Amino acid sequence: MADTPKSEWIVEALNLHERSLIRYASWILNDIECAREVVQETFLRLCKEEPAHVSGHLAQWLFTVCRNLAFDARRKETRISPLGQMEIGVAPASKKNRR
Hints:
Structural class: mainly alpha
Number of strands: 0
Shape: elongated
Number of helices: 5
């Protein structure tokens, strides 16, 4: 099976930008594995784009998508913090409830 021009374009983009995108996402997330997942999703989204849509600004497009996905992942992670790490406050019972 011959490579299509689009797949060659994606492989070239991957070779050129994957390392720097992983470093960038890792800097935002402080987690190399999560950063790799974000970069993988970035390139999956690139696969859905037409080359003409992002030509001329490929690096900017990749870093913007990567940044947005990394911040989404960071927000999701803070929402899903384990119960043991959260402070659980119990309001003192009012005098009415003590009777």
